Amino acid sequence: MWETILYFYGYLVFFYSLGLIVSYVLLLVLSFIHSRKYLKWTDDHICYAVENSPFAPGVSIVAPAYNEEKTIVENVSSLLQLDYPNFEVIIVNDGSKDRTLQILIEQFELEETPYEYVQRIHCKPFRRLFHSTNPKYKRLTVVDKVNGGTKADAVNAGLNVVQTPYFINTDVDCILSRDAIKQCIFPILQDSSIIAVSGTMSMSNGSISENGQLVDIRPSNKPLPLFQDLEYKRSFLVGKMGWSQINAMNNVSGGYGLFSTEVVLSAGGYASDSFAEDMDMITRMIGYCCEQKRPYRVVQIPHTCCWTEGPSTMKVLKRQRVRWGRGLMQHMIKHRYMLFNPKYKTLGLVTLPYTFIFEFLAPVIESTGLLMLIYLLFSHGINWNSFWILFAAIYLFSFLLSSFVIFYDYTAGGSYKNTWSYLKLLIASILEPIFYHPLLVVFSLIGYYNHLTKRAAVWGEMTRTGTTKKTS
């Protein structure tokens, strides 16, 4: 009986691995096709087209802030420097316990403004609204509210103030490229059915910033941020670019994304109880459009719009990935009615089934496989010739996939200006499957366990998780 189970399990793992490899190859092809559409336009052409378009819509940048007194001035100044003809910056002070609000009032010459606050979507109580008396900061609005414990609640408070047709959801400590808004508005000018645009994100760990802008972009010398840099590039330049080609994206990162204000409000805003609020929001937006029989598209652009600091310590990385794992299980349970449901188009028939099989089940299958391997090792049931051939094939494919992403970013004139930076990523791609990936599997399983046992969640403060070297 046990031998029969092992026999069928072996075939299950074989076909599962084969399916995963085939899916990655398809995503590579789709991402290449999608990226070619954008490579024909230079950044100068995109910026010129947006600047001179009479249809360029207003955009609001919503950035929650909680206990950010050390960096808030530089961060807000950076957001105000963005190059777009019609935008505003809405900082949501989410009940900070330090001097964040007081520093904003002093540095940006804010005064309280009478405002008829209409709560279109649920969030913790609104306190005050501020505008600057200095014309230099006329684009800045600060919302003061009771702390809601989650970023989603703070973003909802900002959305209750937004009056523009589109908004950008970002973190106050993210660094945006000067042309970030233009890059995301450009596809909308071509297709009004687009409800969300995802800009490519990258790691800022190791880079040097000055006056809120990166002046020297380089990869981190620490292993954890370097692995995450590679992971981000693979996720955006292969995964999301590929899904975007067939309109099957179900996640726009909470670090940077542009959304239709009307669709987000109609879908109920961000879910404050979600551990994967970005994925949950896009899923509900698409669900709303499908139920209303409204045309929609969610697109990924190859331009790097945002740099964020990744966890540089094991403790912070674990906290982040446990939360992501918990959020993924919560998401799959909450939206299970969409699985294989033709009503929800590619989301229901392609993306969610893929997410369930190759992302949600992956940690379970990998950990079960490791237990099987240990059992076979002690029972002398391993065919070592076959084992090493399969191991080498899977390892080589993983390395080639990462190498393709690195090569693509290099040839497209992407993240870094020197060859050594890409060689560091190449070294990381060699070590990642052995040292980094197993950690993610363990953290995901802990997240699943925490959700099943309904363990109380500890929401980390919205502060930097690493350090960026800065010059004055």
Give an account of the 3D structure.
The strands form two sheets. The protein has a ten-stranded mixed beta sheet, with helices on both faces. The chain has a three-stranded mixed beta sheet with strand order 10-9-13, with no helix packed on it. It has helices at residues 2-39, 43-51, 72-80, 100-107, 151-159, 180-190, 223-245, 261-266, 277-291, 314-334, 345-360, 362-378, 384-411, 419-435, 437-452, and strands spanning 59-65, 87-94, 110-112, 126-132, 140-145, 166-170, 175-176, 194-203, 208-210, 213-216, 256-260, 297-308, 469-470. The longest helix has 38 residues, at 2-39. It is globular and about 75 Å long. By secondary structure, the chain is of the alpha/beta class. It is built from 15 helices and 13 strands. A hairpin with a 7-residue loop joins strand 4 (126-132) and strand 5. Helix 2 crosses helix 6 and helix 7 (223-245) crosses helix 14 (419-435).
Structural class: alpha/beta
* N to C succession of SSEs: HHEHEHEEEHEEHEEEHEHHEHHHHHHE
Q: Count the strands? A: 13
Number of H/I helices: 15
Report helical residue fraction: 40-55%
